[in-house]
Design brief:
With 387 residues, the chain is α/β, with parallel strands linked by helices. The protein folds into 2 domains: 15-261, Aspartate Aminotransferase, domain 2; 262-386, Alpha-Beta Complex (Aspartate Aminotransferase, domain 1). It has helices spanning 15-27, 37-57, 70-81, 96-105, 119-129, 152-162, 181-184, 245-261, 263-281, 308-317, 330-336, 354-366, 379-386, and strands spanning 2-3, 64-67, 87-91, 108-112, 134-140, 166-169, 188-192, 204-208, 287-290, 298-303, 320-321, 323-325, 343-347. It has a 7-stranded mixed sheet with strand order 2-8-7-6-5-3-4, with helices on both faces. The protein is globular, with a radius of gyration of 22 Å.
Amino acid sequence: MIYLDSAATSFQKPPEVRAAMLRAMERCASPGRGGYREAMEAAETVYRCRERFADFFSCEPEQVAFTSSATHSLNIAIKSLVGPGDRVVVSAFEHNAVMRPLAAVGASIFVAESKLFDRAGTLAAFREAVTQDTRAVICTHVSNVFGFILPLEGIAALCRERNVPLIVDAAQSAGILPLSLRELGAAYLAMPGHKGLYGPQGTGVLICGRVPERTLVEGGTGSLSQQLEMPDFLPDRLEPGTANVPGIAGLEAGLRFVQRTGPETVAEREALLVRRVVRQLERLEGIRIFAGPDQAGVLSVQFSGMDCETAAEGLARKGIAVRAGLQCAPLAHAAAGTLETGTVRLSTSAFTTEREIDCFAAAVAELGGGKKKKPAGCPCNRRRNQL
């Protein structure tokens, strides 16, 4: 299988992730719940991961709260800050992990309307939308549909200037693009463990620039057990119940892999792969390509005369895994004019190869999305024919 759906989850993991999880399952009990060896090893495993995240994202270890996903993290951040009727400004490219919690709390949502791949226009739209009565700004760092890298640093500076809390959805950028809680001055950075951080599914992180005013879930923390209220300090306030120690161990190993490989190296390679496939798809007729100058390792395309689900099924029959439809981000599709049709999305990772990208382009040509302007063929097939 050629896996090109890493924006959903990174499927190929570094081998040390599996090893770390197995070790935790064999040697760790519940952290913070006992003084015996297995409980202490669990506590050390969790704290070691907390320290690594603190170093990577420029914060203190206690500001790192473990969750089950970026969605879980965003729900905590949003529902701790926003109440009914509060004015919240969001980008035009937000995921439903942002929009649905805002709708659930009854927030007054204002979209900073801007065009795809227009960083200057996006920042200008935020400048106009963020007013004195804005309760919070929420912005995705990278569009999960189009790979558009939003001007996060400028938006963060605007929020600091106007004293408005900023929540960053780093689902597509954590582990790939620079992110510093200290430099951004954000209220929260929300991220999954299972995408660019190469941890297992069911892991997430919320980097907290403040102690949440309200909690999403309450329960035992192993601290202040005599009181009914949740502790008012981090990370205990956000981590009731037993921690996912095997998942956290795998997450720490995933981040260790990212640090060893170098996030700049991963980002540059993913961008190169996207540019490579764009050059090949531009040779085909009947293919609409959503590409721009500020783009991460995510690319959306449309086929002339073929709906996106049918195209994705055709690619799956050729052994290529992609994502079709609205990708849980109808707001982004509305901004790009693809709300009625959706797109076929490919997304890369540190493990994606040039050969796989070339095979994708050749498969698109073979699907009949349009006539070839130049001959194309899959190098994998050519190699198999030579064997």
